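Escalated from tier 1: nicotinamide-adenine-dinucleotide holo job.
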Amino acid sequence: MKVAGEVVLITGAGGGIGRALAREARRRGAAGLILSDLPGPGLESIAAETGALAIAGDLRDPDFIPALVQQGEAALGPVGIACANAGTAAGWIEKGIITAPGDEIWALAWEVNVLSHVRLSRAVLPGMIARGRGHLLQTISAAGLLTAPGAATYSATKHAALGLAESIAIAHGKDGIGVTALCPQGVDTAMLADVKDEATRADGVMSAEEVAALGFDGVEAGQFLVTPHERVRRYMTKKAGDYEGWIISMQEYKARMRR
Ligand SMILES: NC(=O)c1ccc[n+]([C@@H]2O[C@H](COP(=O)([O-])OP(=O)(O)OC[C@H]3O[C@@H](n4cnc5c(N)ncnc54)[C@H](O)[C@@H]3O)[C@@H](O)[C@H]2O)c1
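Tier 2 regenerated the structure:
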């Protein structure tokens, strides 16, 4: 689906990849932009810069996403492209038991990295299906394909987000719904600055602008999987062809990593 002429909604738009998605959507001629994030200057400034409607709120609040879509559509018209981009890296650990982060951290990762995608899809899909057209751009991660050695919270929830994206693509492709799963490795954002795990940087750190452009290229091409870092497809092929060998190579990689 072309971005030009569409209303585009983006979560996590106050910084990083979300802010870059907002600029890229504007550059490609989006008809309207609905930007959301936690309240703060990041959201206000990107909304002012791109002439967008800013709606602040916490995605963990079950009432927030339905209200976001309702208010956004009342102001700007039906959402054509919904970008579930907000995410959290909570639960990254440098040593110790990988599942050690407490239940509240697991719940946070689940709610932000997965449940917010579920809720956004529930809010936009009925209208999109009724119109016979729409696209979901889900910012996931290469950790959803390959597992980040330093974070079970992140890897497990990003795998779940990918499973969700596949489910929607399979169930609703024939209803005119496209899905793009954007799965980068390291991207130069505030989130990466908080993550010490060197695996996220091993194949180079891309800019948020490059990744956002590739994400919308994927949307416009109707592509399901977008892997901005070139090596990710090779790792996937290795994993699919020899799962045991892939686990062993990841164990060896983890053992070599700084602790
Ligand atoms: N930076 C990387 O290396 C990298 C790599 C792969 C995937 N990703 C994914 O890209 C997406 C964007 O992350 P980023 O790198 O731009 O980092 P970021 O920290 O700049 O952006 C994440 C945004 O999500 C928002 N957010 C978090 N919890 C929220 C909540 N409860 N309610 C509303 N908003 C909330 C934050 O306020 C923030 O603006 C995330 O899904 C992340 O997992 C990032």
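The longest helix spans residues 103-131.
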